[in-house]
Amino acid sequence: MKEVHPDRLSQTLAKAYEFDIKALLSKAARLTKSNFGTLLQGSVVLFLTFVVLGVFAQQYITVHDDGTYTFEHQSIIEIAAICIVAPLLTGLYMIGVTQARGLKTSVFTIFQYFPLLFLLALTQLVNSILVQLGLVLLLLPGIYFYIASSFALMLVADRKMTPISAIILSCRVFNAYWSQIAAVFVVFTLLFITAPLTLGFSLIWVLPFYFSMMGLLYQELIGEQGQRTDASENDVNESSFDA
Known about the structure:
By secondary structure, this protein is mostly helical. It is 70% helix and 2% strand.
């Protein structure tokens, strides 16, 4: 029987988790290898979705002679794109989470979170706004919100949290191990940089590896809802950023 850690979240917020980057990357690589087909198929579905959305949006873009362009109905199209992409992106993350829990999954898992479309789209929209504001005002806050909110979609899907509560808890988890999690993102940034150098072929491995790693991080730092202790329940409901 799979061991359940009901106090995993409280341990993470108390900074009691032993964060071993090398061991996590190694485990994520093994999970990617054993579940490569499902992760790759899900990544292809997400990629094709972006292609279709790009082709659809192109007809509303007018390029002028001076090099400027006009994007008609930009806000509406962007919101519609978020409503389509957010559930699919969540599905891919949850494939990684499910596999990290030692359970079987399939590519159809990517479609299972459309019933949560409104909450997931709202979460993604708030994330995007925070990142854009952070990038415009100062560069570092934008980077912070991009990385710190990376668990928010999974929290909404897995623990049925509200968007704001999920974003806050995601940031609190990041704050507990900000240097280690940031280092993981640096590793994947370097891996994604290889895409142009390999004409995109490296993404065949890098994308499944990324979603596998994110699912493993979520499971290791947050874990299943399960039976929580009083401390962990207070941690989930608390609406403050504890560094």
